[in-house]
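Worked Example 4.2. Consider the chain below.
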Amino acid sequence: MRRLEMRADVPPAAGPVPAPGLRPPEAARPLIRPAPRSAVFFPLVVLVAILPGLVALNSWDLTPPGPLWGLRALAVLDDGLLVDQVPAADAIGPAGEAMAYRAVSYQPPLYAWLAAVGMGLSADHDPIGSVLPSYIAGTFIVMLAYLHGRLWRGGGVGFAAALLVGFNPNLLLRMQEATPTTLAVAATVAALLCYGRHLRATRDLIRSDPWARPAFWAVAEGACLGLALLTLDGFGLVVVPIAALHRLYIGPDPSLYPTFRPRPGARGASRSRRWPWPRRLARRLGAAWVDTLLVVALAALIAVPWQVAMFRAHGWDMLSGLEFPSWSETSSLPARLFELAPVTLPLGLYGAARAFRLGLMDDENTPETVGGAFWLLWLCVAALLPAFWPAGPRGAMDLLLLVPLNLLAASTVADLVNRRIPVRALIALAPATAFSVMWWASADLRGAVGDLAHGRASAATALGVHLAFDLAIVSILLTRRLEIWSRRKDVHRRIVLAGFLLTVLAITVGTGVQEVVFRHSETHELLALRTMILRRNREHPFESLSVVRSDLAAASDPARSADLAFTGGWLRFILRTALPHLAQHDLRTVDELLAEPDGRRLILFTGAGERPSYPVKSKLHLEAIHPGRTGILDAYATAQDDTRR
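Applying the procedure from the previous section yields the following structure tokens:
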């Protein structure tokens, strides 16, 4: 008994006792630390953001006013006009082209600066560098859509939104153009994200990390707003009504903006004693007003200096930058919605109606309800923006409308996957999606409905509309039968939901890929001309550059309006990148060539006007180097065996 008691006093051994002087073996640790499932979404989002746009970059386009922005970037890069690029219009001969360039130069210069950096990366000022800022900003839009969805609804909704936005053909089309559209939208969406982060940081009272404090996100919001204002005049101010309406929806809750008082021994207490004025200002005005003043001050610090410099140089003429030339036809709101997101439009509208209903029913301001109301108000403001700003940038307005629409569509997809929305909702969603895609893809259907509405319909038009209506009825009945079949087993419901969502995903990816593989023939021809000019100039440098433009004499002729495709900034931009040190001489007739000085010449003929006769080519010793499209663009250069100096 005594022996047992003595053994009981001895603690049990935890394992083999190591020998004296030896360390105990360490537990094996994995090579890669396990990460949560939500961490897998971001690498996939990066691939979705980069790959479609990278492939689309191979088919970039010189759509107006892209060449004018390229000329502005060259003015920054070659002429040293960093702040004001308007004086470069004096070197442009045609009055219409100079006026178009001057209108672009009155707009803020952030995109011109970035495009100058992009073209400066190559030795010969590759024109694709002018599109790089647009492409990079488009990738940021996709990642910002993911961050918006993750902020309010989680990583699944964010990934679905990034997938819908990344393969949207309208975004891919804007990423191919050298315009500040995607850059302005990216900065604006980033400012809205910082607003949401600021709101969440204030509600959750997170103070552990500096980047989780409300002041940090207020500074970030002001910086993004300033960059948006430095990209497109006045466009970033759309953040103000969205945030104001959202704050009005949340209500004056004092708990959202408490005054932070650090503990005596906590980090930041010594700084608060050292700088007592922020605490006094926050106590008198409230933390909300302090953060608002911080946003406004930082945005003004970034955007106002350029505005002041332009006003001192040009006076009130700088306000013409608020009027953006429309390079496309204006359309109504339903037409814009069908054009922007034909596949996800019914899902987005359903998500908007669901967010509106939850916003009226929920009084606790949960993140899901607050985020849904934020996206709904964003959608409404972006939809009504063209009515209050008719001369605004239509491309940027459309992309700003696209992001909340796809966020609401992604929330609907997540609710369908999580079975928070019944399967019977597909009775309306599936036929509406089919009709939306059919309306977007068929120009004949749109024309037939328009003719029928205006009383110009023929028998064939009425028959086509009748067939489309019959197909819609059949799709509704078929969806109804599938819904009845899915009531028997839960497996059937999952099959129906999976089939619908996979069809939406396949159509979304297919429409995006169709835009990616598209190639612009005019841009391809101009790039081929630039390659030939660079090759000839490397072997025998040119001494003069002349462009004979028949449209200068007949620009008012409607029959030759199609010939103006190669005029304007297109050809001038390509020639400026190939021969930056040669001044371009714009001529009207072939006879003016004879008065030009001798030397190695590069002569281009645009439009369907006259071409040099054989005696003229023999006298000037010219040879064709790029025939181009017959009667539209032809290039001649001095023969390589010419010995006249």
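Residues 287-314 form the longest helix (28 residues). The chain has 25 helices and five strands. Compare this with Example 4.1 before moving on.
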